[in-house]
Amino acid sequence: MASEFMSAIMQIAEEKGISKEAVVETVEAALAAAYRKDFAQKEQTIVAVLEPDSEKSRLFVVHKIVDEVEDPLKEMTLAEARKVDPAAEVGGEIREEVFPPAEYGRVAAQTAKQVILQRLREAERNMIFQEYKDKEGEMINGTIQRIEGNVVMVDIGKSTGILFPSEQSRSDRYYSGQRMKFYIVRVDDSIKEPQVLLSRAHPQMIAKLFEMEVPEITAGTVEIKGVAREAGVRSKVAVSSNQDAVDPVGSLVGRRGVRVQAVMAEIGEEKIDIVLWNEDTATYITNALSPAKVREVVLNNETKSALIRVEDDQLSLAIGKAGQNVRLASKLTGWQIEVEKNGAKVEVEAEKPEEEATDMVSSETEISTPETEVVEAAVEPTIEAETEAPAVDTKEEEVPESTNDTTGE
Q1: By three-state DSSP, how is residue 198 classified?
Q2: 188 pairs with which residues across the strands?
Q3: In a 3-state reduction of DSSP, which class is residue 185?
Q4: 135-185, pLDDT tens digit by residue?
């Protein structure tokens, strides 16, 4: 049966969520600090050892073994050390047990209390930091705790996450008590407690949401190659399949659009375009500009830019509202895309692509060709189906069933 002392240690460990060993180490440090305060000299190295079974504590003064002693309170010569331990060697240490001559005083007891509280806080903070550090780049459920100006504080369990304005989706409306999913961007170690930085606008949030809905992604059959996002408005997701029999676009859309609709239910009014990734840059750019039909792609490998030529009736689709379609396609492919009309480049509203948007772009999209290459746009058969079902604005009330869906749903 566990003693009262060990029961108290187990209770503290359970309440704080830290290991029993960490609590024992904390008590040992407190005992050493109390002895040093009342009976030892400041410069001495004191170590306490707690024996849980007997509930006894032993105190030792530690000396380092050196060739030449510079600090007698901390060091000892090899000859002196071998009087205590014949096997002693230079670089080792000698522990001499000491016994408190009297009970600890009030100041020493207060010192021990402060050490215990501080060490427990540190152990708890380190445990929380490591737990959330391991979850960087993952999704987490949280409850809105409070809103301070434009900053949203989120209860995520053992810590409080921070959602800054730059990481908020423009379609979200936040209120206390609201439960939502968040993407963990980064965990910073701070003096008080770890800072868990959350996001509702990160491109990878879309990828993680699809991972939760599409078993083919978890199985490795379907792969998300890239995500470009303007949070709260529109996203483009590039996908590929590692098996010829599996339609990657249809897998993400799901039967009657149930999978993509589940993702959209989490991100609000944001539209999602799902396009087919291709190792050929020209084809990939053509697919990324869907639902517009591209007539010709002119690649400049030196500047990593592409000039797009479309028919007049496809120009507005290619550019999109306020240049959004071509801007997202640029983010997704990693190429600067310009649209040409009647021999002149069309000015597109500038918006710098976020770095995160191209993090997942495959290096295979680069082509080692001459400086400028003119490619007649060749759209794969599955892309034609895309404009009718999967790659249409998924904001539509009803998404037609993908004929290529092999999920068996």
Answers
A1: strand
A2: 195
A3: strand
A4: 999 999 999 999 999 999 999 998 899 999 999 999 899 999 999 999 999
Report the distance separating Cα 311 and Cα 289, nearest Å: 13
For residues 108 and 102, what is the distance between their CA atoms, to the nearest angstrom?
12
Token pair of 344, please? 């002149």
CATH superfamily name and code, 4-132: NusA, N-terminal domain (3.30.1480.10)
Q: pLDDT for 174-197, tens place per residue?
A: 999 999 999 999 999 876 788 999
| 21 neighbors 129 (Cβ within 8 angstroms) | no
Distance CA 143, CA 155 (A): 5
Where helices occur in 301-395 by DSSP H, the ranges are: 315-319, 324-333, 381-388
Tokens, residue 366: 């680069």
| Sequence-separated (6 or more) residues with CB below 8 Å from residue 32 | 46, 47, 48, 59
CATH number assigned to the domain with residue range 204-388, chosen from the 4 options 3.30.230.10, 3.40.50.10700, 3.30.300.20, 3.30.450.40: 3.30.300.20
CA distances from 185 to 117, 126, 182, 297 (A): 31, 19, 9, 36
pLDDT digits (tens, 9 = 90+) for 293-342: 998 999 999 999 999 998 888 899 999 988 999 999 999 999 999 998 76
Count of all residues that appear for the chain in the document: 409
**Which H or E run includes 211?**
helix 203-213
Average pLDDT score over residue span 60-65: 88
Per residue, the 3-state secondary structure of 81-98, as one string, reads: HHHHCCCCCCCCEEEEEE
The DSSP code sequence of 31-70 is HHHHHHHHTS-TTSEEEEEEETTTTEEEEEEEEEEESS-S
Taking domain 135-201, whether its CATH number is 2.40.50.140 is answered by yes
For 275, the enclosing helix (H) or strand (E) is strand 271-276
DSSP reduced 3-state for 273: strand
The mean pLDDT value for 42-46 works out to 82
Task: Bin 347: left if φ > 0, else alpha if -120 < ψ < 50, else beta.
Answer: beta
| Prior bond of 291 cis (ω within 30°) | yes
Give phi and psi for 81, each to the nearest 5.
-65, -35
Q: Take residue 259 and report the two structure tokens written for it.
A: 């999978």
CB neighbour class for 283 (10 Å; exposed up to 12, middle 13-18, buried from 19): buried
First and final CA of the chain: distance in angstroms? 55
H/E element, 108: helix 106-133
- Please tell me the distance from the alpha carbon of residue 279 to that of residue 290, in angstroms, as a whole number: 17
